[in-house]
Amino acid sequence: MRRAADRLWRGSAARTAVASRARAWHSLAPAATDLPVLLPAATRLARNAAKARRGGGPPLRLTPAHGVVLLAVFAIACGVAQAQAGAGQPSVLATLWKWLPVLLRGFVFNLAISAMAMSTGTLAGLVLGYAQISQVKAVRGVAAFVTHFFRNAPWLVLLFYCMFLLPFQVRVFGMTIPIPDWTKATFGLALPVMANVAEIVRGAVQSIPTAQWESAASLAFNRRQTMWMIILPQCIKRMLPPWMNLYAILTMSTVLTSIVGVAEIMTLTGRALSAENRPGLLLPFYAFVLVLFFLYCYPIARWTLRLEAKYAVDR
């Protein structure tokens, strides 16, 4: 009897110790900390699902079904245009196939403009974002003014300003160098990208816990060394999802350059429709342009969502 009582007492003591350890571990869990931490994948998914339930349902996300809907719209548009075609006229698909190289060349030009504008805007935005957190008050004020001005200015207005205010040619050492319209349009799109990237940089730097700065100071790191060796490497994961989302938005916004005369896909589509002189082709041609942009931007959007879930910061 005494041995059984001893075993029972030891078992209850072990269970009590396990319970106390569990309570201590729960008190040290990420949910109890005031600092932003990266949670395990399962925990993040569970918390995101709980937040979605509390918010009245999951947020709207693009799915492959949206692409199927776009393809259905394109097929219906082709059917309607084919029904309106007169006798002896080529089919809608044959006409689209004839103009396909021209349209794809214009679409590649759209992608080139977006890549150049994104590269230029990102480099300038890194500098501008770093200036917003400068210790010099005048530098911070000027950087904040430039950021908010270009971030809140309409993109089309900036395009018109760049098209009409920038020179059409410059003279360098007696040589006349023309400035094409697409160059000025690229610069006009890079300005809002610069401002948005600056805000992304500023927000990412300010999201780093102050303990990182204090630890670097305790190791005798100066501000420049702390920024480039400790802070910015941690910011890359936080800046990547919004940066990719901004690139997708910029790619879809490159069609604005058609208004200022740049020969991109929308301009070439209009020229193709004018050459065919068939009003029924308008809907299938522009639906095809929409499908092209969707096929390019949809993978970027899905990758952005995955990165947001992977590098989610819980507070």
Task: Give me the secondary-structure topology.
Blueprint: H1 2-27, E1 37-38, H2 41-54, H3 64-84, H4 92-132, H5 137-152, H6 155-165, E2 169-172, E3 175-178, H7 181-207, H8 210-218, H9 223-253, H10 265-276, H11 282-310, E4 313-314
Antiparallel strand pairs: 1-4, 2-3
Helix pairs in contact: 3-11, 4-5, 4-7, 4-10, 4-11, 5-7, 6-7, 7-9, 8-9, 9-11, 10-11
Q: What would you say this structure looks like, in words?
A:
The protein is mostly helical. It has a single domain (66-310), classed as Orthogonal Bundle (MetI-like fold). 75% of the residues lie in helices and 4% in strands. It is built from eleven helices and four strands; from the N terminus they run H-E-H-H-H-H-H-E-E-H-H-H-H-H-E. It has a two-stranded antiparallel ribbon with strand order 1-4. It has a two-stranded antiparallel ribbon with strand order 2-3. Strand 2 and strand 3 form a beta hairpin. The chain is flat. It starts with a helix and ends with a strand. Residues 24-46 and 48-60 have low confidence and may be disordered.
